[in-house]
């Protein structure tokens, strides 16, 4: 099986590519802007005919789109998260219409959840940020394309290699900087929001199952833990894993997104039924793995 992974250099993409390479008989190719990519692809800028030519040369049985932007202005988000999937679908129609497309969406597409409830794939989508809105546009492009496409709506990914642009990676970096100093103080914003944290390794396994499970599959599947956790619990559990001896202080305010979306939790029943998938890693496990990778990075270990 020939599998083309777009966005392999990103956090999710790196884990996904590693998991796919472990599949028996799989040949995994890297598509992206990196000079060492197997196939040069830029979903934010390529014209349709050029992308179609690249896909024809790659001749994939499956394409996994991990490319996406989580930050930046609305134009950047739209170019990568909305235009990118639409362009990819158009090019696949021309060059590889039989290939399965697995696209990574986001639970942010749902918008605010109701406390003590899980949101299923058929629920109304009410994104409140440009990120969520542009990810939803990408999902619509895939589900309306007529291709063999599946969108995996991923919760908040956590685990080894988490970038500092996200809360878990940022907290890990702060803890590494604080070290064992008992007088250290971490001043953070409001940590009362609830999030559905899912291990990045479980996300990668869900992608591998989606690539290899015979169709037809549901057009959208939630990939999360199916459990809402206070962000405060994540921070304190990670601090414990790091052996942090200082003090954590919560200050008023925080991100606008946290204020607008105080509860987020996915119903993952459909992924279990369609793929036989369930998360294998709990919060403590994923945070221990995150801290081990962070500590190794700080020590200069490979």
TrEMBL record:
Organism this protein belongs to: Streptomyces goshikiensis
Protein name, per record: NAD(P)-dependent oxidoreductase
Every NAD-dependent epimerase/dehydratase domain range: 3-224
Listed Gene3D superfamilies: NAD(P)-binding Rossmann-like Domain
Similarity comment text for this entry: Belongs to the NAD(P)-dependent epimerase/dehydratase family.
InterPro entries given in the database record: Epimerase_deHydtase, NAD(P)-bd_dom_sf
């Amino acid at each position: 099986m020939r599998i083309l992974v777009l966005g392999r250099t990103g956090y999710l993409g790196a884990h996904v590519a590693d998991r796919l390479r472990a599949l028996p008989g799989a040949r995994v190719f890297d598509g992206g802007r990196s000079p060492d990519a197997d196939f040069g692809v830029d979903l934010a800028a390529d014209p349709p005919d050029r992308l179609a030519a690249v896909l024809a040369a790659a001749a994939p049985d499956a394409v996994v789109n991990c490319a996406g932007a989580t930050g930046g202005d609305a134009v950047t988000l739209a170019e990568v998260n909305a235009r990118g999937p639409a362009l990819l679908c158009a090019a696949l129609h021309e060059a590889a219409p039989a290939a399965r497309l697995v696209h990574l969406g986001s639970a942010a597409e749902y918008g605010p959840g109701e406390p003590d409830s899980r949101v299923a794939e058929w629920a109304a989508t009410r994104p409140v940020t440009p990120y969520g809105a542009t990810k939803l546009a990408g999902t619509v492009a895939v589900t309306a394309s007529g291709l063999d496409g599946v969108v995996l709506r991923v919760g908040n990914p956590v685990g080894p290699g988490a970038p500092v642009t996200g809360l878990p990676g940022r907290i890990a970096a702060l803890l590494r900087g604080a070290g064992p100093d008992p007088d250290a103080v971490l001043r953070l914003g409001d940590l009362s929001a609830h999030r559905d944290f899912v291990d990045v390794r479980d996300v990668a396994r869900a992608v591998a199952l989606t690539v290899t499970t015979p169709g037809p599959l549901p057009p959208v599947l939630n990939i999360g833990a199916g459990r809402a956790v206070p962000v405060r619990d994540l921070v304190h559990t990670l601090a414990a894993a790091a052996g942090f001896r200082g003090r954590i202080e919560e200050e008023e305010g925080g991100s606008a997104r946290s204020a607008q979306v105080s509860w987020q939790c996915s119903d993952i029943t459909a992924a279990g039924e369609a793929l036989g998938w369930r998360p294998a890693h709990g919060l403590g496990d994923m945070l221990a793995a995150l801290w081990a990778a962070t500590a190794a990075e700080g020590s200069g270990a490979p």
